[in-house]
């Protein structure tokens, strides 16, 4: 059973970026956030367009764009916001995770 969650959010900027990428690739506007072991700090975030919503996924929605998170990853990202940031260093999806005890310079790795 899928569950709508409000404890993980997708910013309007991230939703707009996902919608643009999905339209170019002719895919649904669904961004999957998952957490894997590894990276410089112990865990790393993984992003990718998803073709659909899997059983057990939690869903957050902003401006018609869905952010889906599997149940194991949700425990590590609860309370987080996914944003899209453009700077001189480049453009990337960023996770602001209140559970992360530390992070690293690359912005995609964290420890709890």
TrEMBL record:
PROSITE patterns found in the cross-reference section: HESB (PS01152)
Gene3D superfamilies xrefs: HesB-like domain
Example of a GO MF term: iron ion binding
GO biological process: iron-sulfur cluster assembly
Signal peptide: none
Domain Core: 8-107
Pfam families xrefs: Fe-S_biosyn
InterPro entries hit by this protein: ATAP (IPR016092), ATAP_core_dom (IPR000361), FeS_cluster_insertion_CS (IPR017870), HesB-like_dom_sf (IPR035903)
PANTHER family on file: IRON-SULFUR CLUSTER ASSEMBLY 2 HOMOLOG, MITOCHONDRIAL (PTHR43011:SF1)
Official protein name in the record: Iron-sulfur cluster assembly accessory protein
């Amino acid at each position: 059973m899928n569950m709508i969650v409000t404890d993980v959010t997708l910013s309007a900027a991230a939703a707009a970026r996902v919608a643009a990428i999905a339209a170019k690739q002719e895919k649904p506007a669904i961004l999957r956030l998952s957490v894997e072991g590894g990276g410089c700090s112990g865990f790393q975030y993984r992003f990718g367009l998803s073709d659909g919503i899997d059983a057990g996924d939690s869903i957050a929605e902003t401006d018609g764009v869905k952010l889906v998170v599997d149940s194991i990853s949700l425990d590590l990202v609860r309370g987080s916001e996914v944003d899209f940031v453009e700077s001189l260093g480049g453009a990337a999806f960023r996770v602001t995770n209140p559970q992360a005890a530390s992070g690293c310079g690359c912005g995609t790795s964290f420890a709890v």
